[in-house]
Design goal:
There is one protein chain. The chain has 2 domains: 88 residues, MurE/MurF, N-terminal domain (Udp-n-acetylmuramoylalanyl-d-glutamate--2,6- Diaminopimelate Ligase, Chain: A, domain 1, 3-Layer(aba) Sandwich); 210 residues, Hexapeptide repeat proteins (UDP N-Acetylglucosamine Acyltransferase, domain 1). It is built from 4 helices and 40 strands. The strands form 6 sheets. It has a 12-stranded mixed sheet, covered by helices on one side. It has a 10-stranded parallel sheet with strand order 9-12-15-18-21-26-29-32-35-38, with no helix packed on it.
Length: 345
């Protein structure tokens, strides 16, 4: 984003079509959490419950909405419709991700058949295999492995110690964080008289544009065909995606989630932390599953689920409330049985 800091609060308000309240000459040179904001800092809040914190702050610039301004002459306010979105745009200025450069480190091993576009870079001790294609502006950071026939699009960042096994396809503007392995064998075995025989995993993995994959994730290649991650999907750390899974666009998979083989997530599905899905489960568009939920059956679109097995959240919460009462219900039942026994004896 073309945003040069430091800048005045007045300039910030003009840039984002906000209304200025307070000293327009106050300077913004950094970003901060609300409770730590001080001179030179930009912070935001968009919930009334944070108003008391705001009363005690001094000399910061705050992004908020018209209805949440509080009296504090020591602060400058920039009033916008979506404070968090504007704050995120400004914070991107401080993004620590490395800049692109046209450079292959002398310690990197690059096969002569690999094609590295102008503006791409390969870091120290990385390996680039046969017939690999790396798009313009993509950064392969140190100690990465990129296997034969891998295709990586433009403006990606592959962080240290990522493994991209052969024939994987990565789209544009993808970020893959350290320790992640993409294209390892799917977990398929056939019982035989001599024991378990591995089923050949000869498919691949296809990752669309704008995908983010966190640290220490594993995405298995398909047995046949492709395991697919759709456009704009965001995957947290420590997530496992099994072979032949089909994940739609703009899905969210939180940390600790595990998908067995051939799971289908339609677009905009949200899986909370430690969700587990059995093989061949299909989750409908826009569905959400709360943390530690799990299922081996299909789930409908645009509903929120929780529990194991996952059921609609209202039913799940009702069941949970009843479970808390079970000890008392048990005691009452025992007393009733005792009385009945006395009356019939």
């Amino acid at each position: 984003m073309d945003l040069q800091l430091p800048m005045t609060a007045a300039a910030l308000a003009e840039r984002f079509n906000g209304r200025l309240v307070g000293d327009g000459l106050r300077e913004v040179s950094g970003v901060s959490a609300l409770e730590d904001a001080g001179p030179g800092d930009l912070a935001f809040y968009q919930q009334k419950r944070f108003s008391e914190k705001v009363r005690d702050l001094r000399h910061a610039v705050l992004l908020t909405t018209e209805e949440l301004v509080v009296p504090n002459d020591a602060l400058t306010f920039v009033l916008v419709q979506n404070p968090q979105r504007i704050f995120t745009e400004v914070a991107e200025t401080f993004n620590w991700y490395p800049d692109g450069c046209e450079n292959v480190d002398p310690t990197a091993k690059v096969d002569p058949t690999a094609q590295i576009a102008a503006g791409a870079s390969v870091g120290a001790f990385s390996y680039i295999g046969e017939r690999v294609s790396i798009g313009a502006g993509t950064r392969i950071l140190p100690h990465c492995y990129v296997g034969a026939d891998v295709s990586i699009g433009e403006n990606c960042i592959i962080f240290p110690r990522v493994v991209l096994n052969p024939r994987v396809t990565i789209g544009n503007r993808v970020r893959i964080f350290s320790g992640t392995v993409i294209g390892s064998d799917g977990f398929g075995f056939l019982p035989t008289e001599k024991g378990l025989q591995a089923v050949p995993q000869i498919g691949t993995v296809e990752i669309a544009d704008e995908v983010r994959i966190g640290a220490n994730c594993t995405i298995d290649r398909a047995t046949l065909g492709a395991t697919r991650i759709g456009y704009g999907t965001k995957i947290d750390n420590l997530v496992h995606v099994g072979h032949n899974c089909q994940i739609g666009s703009h899905c969210i998979l939180c940390a600790g989630t595990g998908l067995a083989g051939s799971v289908v997530l339609e677009d905009q599905v949200v899986l909370g932390g430690q969700v587990g899905l059995g093989d061949h489960v299909r989750v409908g568009k826009g569905a959400q599953i709360g943390s530690q939920g799990g299922t081996t059956t299909n789930l409908k679109a645009n509903q929120t689920y929780w529990g194991t097995p996952a059921i609609p959240v209202k039913e799940s919460l009702s069941t949970f409330r009843l479970m808390k009462k079970l000890p008392e219900i048990w005691r009452r039942l025992a007393r009733l049985e005792s009385r009945l026994g006395e009356e019939t004896s």
